Automatic annotation (TrEMBL):
<keyword id="KW-0221">Differentiation</keyword>
<feature type="region of interest" description="Disordered">
    <location>
        <begin position="445"/>
        <end position="480"/>
    </location>
</feature>
<dbReference type="InterPro" id="IPR009057">
    <property type="entry name" value="Homeodomain-like_sf"/>
</dbReference>
<dbReference type="GO" id="GO:0043565">
    <property type="term" value="F:sequence-specific DNA binding"/>
</dbReference>
<dbReference type="GO" id="GO:0005634">
    <property type="term" value="C:nucleus"/>
</dbReference>
<keyword id="KW-0217">Developmental protein</keyword>
<dbReference type="GO" id="GO:0005667">
    <property type="term" value="C:transcription regulator complex"/>
</dbReference>
<dbReference type="Pfam" id="PF03792">
    <property type="entry name" value="PBC"/>
</dbReference>
<keyword id="KW-0805">Transcription regulation</keyword>
<dbReference type="GO" id="GO:0030154">
    <property type="term" value="P:cell differentiation"/>
</dbReference>
<dbReference type="Pfam" id="PF05920">
    <property type="entry name" value="Homeobox_KN"/>
</dbReference>
<keyword id="KW-0371">Homeobox</keyword>
<dbReference type="InterPro" id="IPR005542">
    <property type="entry name" value="PBX_PBC_dom"/>
</dbReference>
<dbReference type="GO" id="GO:0000981">
    <property type="term" value="F:DNA-binding transcription factor activity, RNA polymerase II-specific"/>
</dbReference>
<keyword id="KW-0539">Nucleus</keyword>
<dbReference type="InterPro" id="IPR050224">
    <property type="entry name" value="TALE_homeobox"/>
</dbReference>
<feature type="DNA-binding region" description="Homeobox">
    <location>
        <begin position="271"/>
        <end position="333"/>
    </location>
</feature>
Length: 480
DNA sequence: ACCTATGATTACCT
DNA sequence: AGGTAATCATAGGT
């Protein structure tokens, strides 16, 4: 940066007299004029440089040529290169001393244009090498991380399959229901491949630009090395600087690609951000289980696995669902009344059907099948809890009494029969079967929920063990 | 735009 | 480890 002042100083200290023929002056300078005479020569040369733009192209070209053909040129060039190498190394070491370099007077007088250009280049090299030294190592680890991530996301990996594999992995991680969000995944894949494409075209573009620029700079430097002290080593260094520069740009590209992928991922696959409702079937299965095990809605690990399989969701999702359900049911039982009715009835119907089928083989009719049929008529026909409550409560109550009573106690009651008991009992509890004088909400107070809000199994001793449903258990003759 | 439903997460408890 | 309660953040309906 101190180039300008230096030049200005020299300029000011010397007269403006113009002299032709640079080589001659150089020769004169070489002649070893000391003191004022030498200064005068330098001033003359400088003046010529300053006015070089005023000269015609041919004239300048001729001088350049003459300079290149100077007999001392190769030797001088080598010396300059050497000094420069050394100076660059020094300047890197003592980077904050922006030392104005002191050249041997002989060299100064020999080739001012060379010295000047050398100084300029020296300056730029200093800057570049400092920068280069600073950016040397740190990005490596980060670059590797980015590369790994891009590879993992299928952006930088092999052409096909990588993306979908990543999507599938992400889908598995998010635990979403398969059929439901497959469309979404294709959308995700499409967007991912879009990112991938952009990434690759950009990468290619950068690479090409890097190569082009490198060749350009190399040519330029080679060209300039005829007039400036540029050694092949320096060209090499310059090239590596350029490559570093471009690879830092590449890293930026990689970084932003990673960001884009992350955003895409979070938008499409992050379970929490993009919450997907379970599909209707899954919800029904879960609700069915919940309401048929209302006295103890805590599915065992096995039951959870089974439910998870049935609903094509994960076990932890099942756990979440039951956790949420329990708490929300307990908090506002009234709100769930209708739902409870519905599922209670449905479960009863299912059980009745199963039981009817089972008994058709062996015995004519069973009390619980009758009960289920009674249950059926209410909520499903007119779909209203109110009318359901009023119409058949008596029958239901009787049926359940008998089911839960002695007649079924000793028999090999199947697990699903227990479900029916829970379900029907629940229906009864809201229809006023257990308590007459209460309001709807109070009536609905579920059996099993104690004063503290916890579920108790006191009312249904048999449901302490979570029943595992199996057709086999019903199959056995439960009638007599 | 608002509201409710709902799946997930969190802190805390047993 | 598994439960509860509170909370978050979004889906989906109006």
């Amino acid at each position: 940066m101190d180039e300008q002042p230096r030049m200005m100083h020299s300029h000011a200290g010397v007269g403006m007299a113009g002299h032709p023929g640079l080589p001659q002056h150089m020769q004169e300078g070489t002649g070893g004029a000391d003191g004022d005479g030498r200064k005068q020569d330098i001033g003359d040369i400088l003046q010529q440089i300053m006015t070089i733009t005023d000269q015609s192209l041919d004239e300048a070209q001729a001088r350049k040529h003459a300079l290149n053909c100077h007999r001392m040129k190769p030797a001088l060039f080598n010396v300059l290169c050497e000094i420069k190498e050394k100076t660059v190394a020094d300047s890197v070491l003592t980077s904050n001393q922006s030392g104005s370099l002191t050249l041997p007077p002989a060299i100064c007088s020999l080739s001012l244009p060379l010295v000047l250009s050398f100084s300029l280049l020296e300056e730029e090299m200093k800057v570049l090498s400092i920068r280069g030294a600073q950016e040397e190592e740190p990005p490596d680890a980060q670059l590797m991380r980015l590369d790994n991530m891009l590879l993992a996301e299928g952006v930088s990996g092999p052409e096909k399959g990588g993306g979908s594999a990543a999507a599938a992995a992400a889908a598995a991680a998010s635990g979403g229901a398969g059929a439901d969000n497959s469309a979404e995944h294709s959308d995700y894949r499409a967007k991912l491949s879009q990112i991938r494409q952009i990434y690759h075209t950009e990468l290619e573009k950068y690479e090409q630009a890097c190569n082009e620029f490198t060749t350009h700079v190399m040519n330029l430097l080679r060209e300039q090395s005829r007039t400036r002290p540029i050694s092949p080593k320096e060209i090499e260094r310059m090239v590596s600087i350029i490559h570093r520069k471009f690879s830092s740009i590449q890293m930026q590209l990689k970084q932003s690609t990673c960001e884009a992928v992350m955003i895409l991922r979070s938008r499409f696959l992050d379970a929490r951000r993009k919450r997907r409702n379970f599909n209707k079937q899954a919800t029904e299965i879960l609700n069915e289980y919940f309401y048929s095990h209302l006295s103890n809605p805590y599915p065992s690990e096995e039951a959870k696995e089974e439910l998870a399989k049935k609903c094509s969701i994960t076990v932890s999702q099942v756990s979440n669902w039951f956790g949420n359900k329990r708490i929300r049911y307990k908090k506002n039982i009234g709100k769930f009344q209708e739902e409870a009715n519905m599922y209670a009835a449905r479960t009863a119907v299912n059980a009745a059907n199963v039981s009817a089928h089972g008994s058709q083989a062996n015995s004519p009719s069973t009390p619980n099948s009758a009960a289920a049929k009674v249950t059926l008529s209410g909520p499903i026909d007119n779909g209203s809890a109110g009318s359901f409550n009023m119409s058949n409560s008596g029958d239901l109550f009787m049926s359940v009494q008998s089911m839960n009573g002695d007649s079924y106690q000793g028999a090999q009651v199947g697990a699903n029969v227990q479900s029916q008991v829970d379900t029907l009992r629940h229906v009864i509890s809201q229809t006023g079967g257990y308590s007459d004088g209460l309001t709807a909400n109070q009536m609905y107070s579920p059996q099993g929920i104690n004063a503290n809000g916890g579920w108790q199994d006191a009312t249904t001793p048999s449901s302490v063990t979570s029943p595992t449903e199996g057709p086999g258990s019903v199959h056995s003759d439960t009638s007599n």
